[in-house]
Amino acid sequence: MRKRRRENEAFSISFLDVITCGFGAIILLLMIAKTGDSPILERAEESLQGIVRELQIQLFEIRGEAKILDRELNAKHEQRSEWQQRVARLEAELVQEELRYNSVRDDSAVGEIIKGEFELALQTLTAEMKRLLAQTDRAQSGLIGGIPVDSEYVIFIIDTSGSMVNSHWENMIKQLITTLDVYPRLQGIQIMSDMGEYLFSQYRRRWIPDTEGRRRAIIRTLRSWRTFSNSSPVEGITQAIRTFYDPGKKISIYVYGDEFSGSIRQVLDAVERINPKDRDGNTKVRIHAVGFPVPANAPEHFQLTNRHFAALMRQLTHENGGAYVGLSDPGRAF
Questions:
Q1: What pLDDT, in 10s, does the model give residues 120-165?
Q2: Which of 214, 191, 187 is closest to 201 using CA atoms?
Q3: Are 167 and 294 in contact (CB under 8 A)?
């Protein structure tokens, strides 16, 4: 009887050892699995945090632009109201002077004196009214500096070749700022290289909204923008017209460059095919150009390609309803 009891005790202890080892193995596997998943969870959490930060930055930017637009709109309303009040006040003074003049014009002696005063006051009032009205109606003018500025959308095609980057880049940016100043508020802007590359890839084939913040971003990004160029505007103009032409939009293209060595006739024919004239002689888009000079001591080859660019742009802008401005030295046109 004693021997049989020892066998049962040995069997019970072995069974408990097996069960204990099994539980230990399960716990160890769970710890390994949790440790292996931790980096994946951390990376997912970091990615989500990055997306949240990016969305917060975009939200702050949109809120900032909205505040700027609200301030600008309120300022314009206040300025317009002030101008209207001043014009109304001047018109009332003019009516009073007319009544005063008519009441005394039969008295020749007094009438001559009053007539002189009236004419002087009339000249002053008329000059002041013209000045105020000219400020309010400037945006409705069709020409500024000889260049039509009736467009609501503007595309800049910029030569990004080495000669432009090394010799004219800062001046080109100044000319672009000057051009944008002529258009206080546009419906859309786009910046492309003469090869059709976009300054902002996120706005590829889309208009850049015209806000103060976006204009500053354009100038800031242009200062370090570098991309390949073959010094021919054909690719950029062709892509711009094919991508952005809309019969319901008034669009202008501005070409900035300094050299061209290809066939002028081929360029004119290629642009004519993509930008034909209608029955009234109007093209789909206007094409303007600004030519930058090469230094006087530059090799003859560069002098020749510079004159070639000017000849091309004069004819191209003439045939496409635009104007050509050739700079003789930085910041000055001839």
A1: 555 555 554 555 445 444 444 444 445 666 789 999 999 999 989 9
A2: 191
A3: yes
Give the dihedral sign, CA 221/226/229/235.
Answer: negative
> Encoding tokens for residue 286?
């206007």
Of 288, 275, 260, the C-alpha closest to 179 is 288
Alpha carbon separation from 327 to 145, 175, 177, 195, 290 (Å, rounded): 14, 10, 16, 23, 7
Look up residue 304 and give its two tokens. Answer: 């020749």
Q: How far apart are CA 71 and CA 226, in angstroms?
A: 35
Q: Which of 294, 153, 163 is closest to 229 using CA atoms?
A: 163
The beta strand positions in the chain, using DSSP E, are: 143-144, 147-148, 153-158, 188-193, 251-257, 286-291, 324-329, 332-333
- Of the listed ranges 34-43, 75-84, 288-297, the least confidently predicted one is 34-43
pLDDT of residue 156: 97
**H or E stretch at 66:** helix 2-104
